[in-house]
Amino acid sequence: MYPEAVPRLWCAMLSMTLLAGGLDPRPTAADYPHRAALSRAAMGVEYHGRAFDAKTGGFFTQDFLVVEVALFPDRTPLEFSPSHFRLRLNGRKPELLPVTPGTVALAIRNPDHYEQRPGIVAGGGVGGGTVIFGQPRRAERFPGDPEARVPAGGPGSEQAQTPRVLLGAAEAVESFGLSRIEAPPAGAAGLVYFHWRGKHAKLKRIELIYDGPAGQAVFRLR
Fold first, then answer.
1. What integer is the mean pLDDT of 109-132?
2. What residue segments make up the domains of the chain, in order of their start?
3. What is the distance between the alpha carbons of residues 166 and 112, in angstroms, rounded to a whole number?
4. Mean pLDDT across the chain, nearest whole number?
């Protein structure tokens, strides 16, 4: 391979990696509510609670916390991965480790089967409204009762339309989720998800801990 072809090949591979998921980074780390200058990069962070909304899609879920992160390396690309983050709630341990976007998407696609947990909500850009999923199904009056398979709201209700909305919300979760990539100096961004079922109002202190190739930092999100 000719030497001059190596940079072009590397750029092509990087572009394919970035297309795998994540968000478009903002111009600089200063454009995020929380930021820090690390030893080898600048980082920007925004806490979204249990929801995320954008022109291209959105979602809300009661069982996960969502943090947007962006890395801007100083000179050369750096590895950027959800595994570099932990979330500390109310100063307590153990700290939460990230879950994969697929885990969150699975909970949204299958609300009735995800540990029997109701209350998954999708809305914003994915369906033009807010729809609550995971309501109990009707009990069968006799084996094979066809009405037991119909959502409680009836064929014309919002619940009957959930497959399309759920699919859109799950796709948004996976599309926006941060994957393990090489962040270029121009920056890379994505969402990191943490599984937590407690009451959000009880979270008085939320800290995001970063420990990765760019250095170390603790972001006070609340």
1. 46
2. 20-48+65-100+177-220, 105-170
3. 12
4. 78
Instruction: Find where tokens 């979602």 sit.
Output: 59
d(CA 150, CA 163): 13
> Is residue 172 a contact partner of residue 16, using CB atoms and an 8 Å limit?
no
179 touches 22 (CB < 8 A)? yes
Indicate the helix (H) or strand (E) that contains 170. helix 162-176
Fold of 20-48+65-100+177-220: Immunoglobulin-like (2.60.40)
Task: Please report the pLDDT score of residue 213 as a whole number.
Answer: 96
Give the predicted TM-score (pTM) of the model. 0.72
171: amino acid identity, one letter: E
51 contacts 180 by C-beta, under 8 angstroms? no
Would the pLDDT of 87 be above 60? yes
Q: Are strands 215-220 and 206-212 parallel, antiparallel or unpaired?
A: antiparallel
* C-alpha dihedral (36, 37, 40, 43), degrees to nearest 10: 30
Question: Which stretch of 21-25, 64-68, 145-149, 181-185 has the lowest confidence by average pLDDT?
Answer: 145-149
